[in-house]
Amino acid sequence: MWIDVIAVLPEMFSSAFEYGVIGRARKKGLFTLQVHNLRDFTEDRHRQIDDAPYGGGPGMVLKPEPIFAAVRSLLRGWTKDREKVVLLTPQGKRLDQQLLVELSVLEHLILICGRYEGVDERVREQLVDEEVSIGDYVLSGGEIPAMVIVDGVVRLLEGVVGSRESLIEESFQKGLLDYPQYTRPYDFEGIKVPDILLKGDHQRVKEWREKKARERTAQLRPDLLEKWEGSRKR
Questions:
Q1: Whole domain around residue 54: which residue ranges?
Q2: What is the mean pLDDT of residues 39-45?
Q3: Is residue 49 marked as binding?
Q4: Which of 104, 154, 170, 227 is the one with CA 20 to 30 A from 148?
């Protein structure tokens, strides 16, 4: 997979993916990531990427010319099932595991990092295939959301995570939050590991884990539990 990121502050990515699972995958060539400075696609000597909004109002808006130039230079002309342009913006579709799965099957992903008061509307209308938000809160720009997407997408690629089973059992992958996890010591400050995990009965452990996952999801994310239960009825 090839991922291009168009950013106002590309320096933020300098060490973000040099470590851990994603860093090892990058060194193995399991994916390619290139981060591009939006200012490199300007044509004026001041390298201006933003301007005041028509009609007045606070803040600045990212100009269309450099964004169009950047995306057009990166597009390969493939079909939408192989290549997509995604804009990171608060008004986009909420990022979830299913969307990460959908993005992970692409061969080429272009991420545009929004900033300031947003981007010129013509970028959204003419250039972008999908708008994505990582949550209902305000950040300084799209660089951090882009990092979230890269991390979430790359770990789904073949060969990145050592065990495919660990991917399947993760929180959200099956629609529920994760069940409680324990390791040594058995007794820590008087709090003991549940006996059911020590008896080697894999079926009972599986049932216990699913029960605890449902309980945790009901407590912390009842919206997810409702969605999960609805999917099981279909």
A1: 2-154
A2: 96
A3: no
A4: 227
142 carries a ligand binding annotation: no
**SS3 readout for 149-185:** HHHHHHCCCCCCCCCHHHHHHCCCCCCCCCCCCCCCC
Confirm whether residue 160 is marked as ligand binding: no
Q: What's the mean pLDDT when you consider all of the chain?
A: 93
pLDDT tens, residue by residue, 138-163 = 899 999 999 999 999 999 999 999 75
- CB distance 118 to 61 below 8 Å: yes
Residue 31: both structure tokens together: 């994916």
Domain count, the chain: 2
Closest by CA to 217, choosing from 174, 182, 183, is 174
User: Do 60 and 131 share a domain, yes or no?
Assistant: yes
Residue 165 lies in a domain: no
CATH code for position 109 = 3.40.1280.10
Supply the pTM of this predicted model: 0.88
3 in a known ligand binding site: no
135 among annotated binding-site residues: yes
Looking at the fold, whether 226 and 144 belong to one and the same domain comes out as: no
Specify the pLDDT at position 229.
85
Is 138 annotated to bind a ligand? Reply is: yes
Determine the Cα–Cα distance for residues 118 and 166; give it in Å rounded to an integer.
38
Q: Is 139 annotated to bind ligand? A: yes
